[in-house]
Design brief:
The structure is a single chain. By secondary structure, this protein is α+β, with helices and mostly antiparallel strands. 43% of the residues lie in helices and 18% in strands. It is globular, with a radius of gyration of 13 Å.
Length: 114
Amino acid sequence: MDGLHPKSEISGTCWIEFNIGGTPDFYVHWLDTSLYASLKNMGRVYAVFSLCIEGFSLYGPLFLDQEKLTQLCSMLDGFASTTASVPAGKFAQELEAFLRSCNERADPVWMLGV
Protein backbone atom coordinates (compact mmCIF):
# COMPACT_ATOMS: atom_id res chain seq x y z
CA MET A 1 0.00 0.00 0.00
CA ASP A 2 1.48 3.29 -1.05
CA GLY A 3 0.84 6.65 0.57
CA LEU A 4 -0.68 7.70 3.85
CA HIS A 5 -3.87 6.00 4.99
CA PRO A 6 -6.61 6.69 7.51
CA LYS A 7 -7.32 4.06 10.12
CA SER A 8 -10.34 2.78 8.17
CA GLU A 9 -8.07 1.65 5.29
CA ILE A 10 -5.59 -0.42 7.27
CA SER A 11 -5.60 -3.60 9.30
CA GLY A 12 -3.16 -5.52 11.42
CA THR A 13 0.11 -4.15 12.72
CA CYS A 14 3.42 -3.06 11.18
CA TRP A 15 2.30 0.49 10.48
CA ILE A 16 3.88 3.79 11.39
CA GLU A 17 1.28 6.05 12.95
CA PHE A 18 1.41 9.82 12.57
CA ASN A 19 -0.70 10.70 15.57
CA ILE A 20 -2.08 14.24 15.68
CA GLY A 21 -4.63 13.77 18.45
CA GLY A 22 -2.43 14.01 21.51
CA THR A 23 -0.50 16.69 23.31
CA PRO A 24 3.27 17.30 23.48
CA ASP A 25 3.31 15.13 26.62
CA PHE A 26 0.82 12.38 25.75
CA TYR A 27 -0.53 10.30 22.86
CA VAL A 28 -3.09 7.54 22.34
CA HIS A 29 -2.61 4.74 19.76
CA TRP A 30 -4.92 4.07 16.81
CA LEU A 31 -6.82 7.35 16.70
CA ASP A 32 -9.25 7.99 13.86
CA THR A 33 -7.48 11.32 13.26
CA SER A 34 -4.12 9.59 12.70
CA LEU A 35 -2.63 8.73 9.34
CA TYR A 36 -0.60 5.58 8.80
CA ALA A 37 2.34 4.69 6.56
CA SER A 38 3.55 1.22 5.67
CA LEU A 39 7.01 0.07 6.72
CA LYS A 40 7.87 -0.14 3.02
CA ASN A 41 7.08 3.54 2.49
CA MET A 42 8.87 4.63 5.64
CA GLY A 43 11.89 2.66 4.47
CA ARG A 44 11.88 4.86 1.37
CA VAL A 45 12.33 8.03 3.46
CA TYR A 46 14.21 6.53 6.40
CA ALA A 47 17.45 8.33 5.51
CA VAL A 48 15.73 11.73 5.67
CA PHE A 49 14.42 11.05 9.17
CA SER A 50 17.79 9.63 10.26
CA LEU A 51 19.56 12.80 9.15
CA CYS A 52 17.10 15.02 11.04
CA ILE A 53 16.70 12.98 14.22
CA GLU A 54 19.64 11.60 16.14
CA GLY A 55 19.10 7.94 17.06
CA PHE A 56 15.95 7.77 14.90
CA SER A 57 13.79 4.65 15.20
CA LEU A 58 10.55 3.85 13.40
CA TYR A 59 9.12 2.28 16.52
CA GLY A 60 9.15 5.39 18.76
CA PRO A 61 7.21 6.93 20.26
CA LEU A 62 8.76 10.13 18.99
CA PHE A 63 7.33 13.62 19.43
CA LEU A 64 7.97 15.88 16.42
CA ASP A 65 8.03 19.48 17.64
CA GLN A 66 7.59 22.42 15.27
CA GLU A 67 11.32 22.91 14.79
CA LYS A 68 11.78 19.24 13.87
CA LEU A 69 8.73 19.33 11.58
CA THR A 70 10.14 22.37 9.76
CA GLN A 71 13.46 20.60 9.24
CA LEU A 72 11.80 17.35 8.11
CA CYS A 73 9.53 19.19 5.67
CA SER A 74 12.47 20.99 4.10
CA MET A 75 14.45 17.78 3.68
CA LEU A 76 11.45 15.76 2.45
CA ASP A 77 10.71 18.49 -0.10
CA GLY A 78 14.30 18.38 -1.38
CA PHE A 79 14.25 14.59 -1.51
CA ALA A 80 10.91 14.59 -3.36
CA SER A 81 12.14 17.12 -5.92
CA THR A 82 15.06 14.87 -6.88
CA THR A 83 13.05 11.63 -6.96
CA ALA A 84 9.57 12.87 -7.95
CA SER A 85 8.92 10.22 -10.60
CA VAL A 86 9.56 7.20 -8.38
CA PRO A 87 7.48 5.85 -5.46
CA ALA A 88 9.93 7.21 -2.88
CA GLY A 89 9.59 10.74 -4.22
CA LYS A 90 5.80 10.53 -4.42
CA PHE A 91 5.56 9.31 -0.84
CA ALA A 92 8.02 11.98 0.36
CA GLN A 93 5.89 14.63 -1.33
CA GLU A 94 2.66 13.35 0.28
CA LEU A 95 4.27 13.04 3.72
CA GLU A 96 5.82 16.51 3.47
CA ALA A 97 2.44 18.07 2.62
CA PHE A 98 0.79 16.33 5.57
CA LEU A 99 3.53 17.28 8.05
CA ARG A 100 3.61 20.86 6.75
CA SER A 101 -0.15 21.21 7.29
CA CYS A 102 0.22 19.85 10.84
CA ASN A 103 3.04 22.31 11.50
CA GLU A 104 1.02 25.25 10.15
CA ARG A 105 -1.86 24.36 12.50
CA ALA A 106 0.61 23.73 15.36
CA ASP A 107 -0.84 20.22 15.80
CA PRO A 108 1.21 18.01 18.12
CA VAL A 109 2.61 15.15 16.01
CA TRP A 110 3.69 11.83 17.47
CA MET A 111 5.26 9.16 15.33
CA LEU A 112 5.24 5.55 16.48
CA GLY A 113 5.23 2.02 15.16
CA VAL A 114 2.05 0.07 15.82
